[in-house]
Amino acid sequence: MVSLDSAEKNAAFADALGANFTLLSDPSGNVARSYGVLNLSRFFAKRWTFYIDREGTVLRIDRSVDPARHGEQVASALAELGFPKAGDGP
Prior knowledge:
This protein is of the alpha+beta class and 90 residues long. It is built from 3 helices and 6 strands; from the N terminus they run βαβαββββα. The chain has 2 domains: 1-46, no CATH class; 47-90, no CATH class.
């Protein structure tokens, strides 16, 4: 996950969720702008999911993120794209 929030705010959010992954901070909006998801009028990023392989190739972009079901959708997409399950691959 990448957020426009500060690293401190992201750390607090991750702690509150009990997240076991890193939330990256992009307070300048440079990464969001590079991926075409920065909403300049309100300075927030669109909720899109990019599936990127180890070589840096974008394999899929999900532009219809439903926060209530997104975990399930991501798991399904990762399986379809052939990503290994945690503990199965390098």
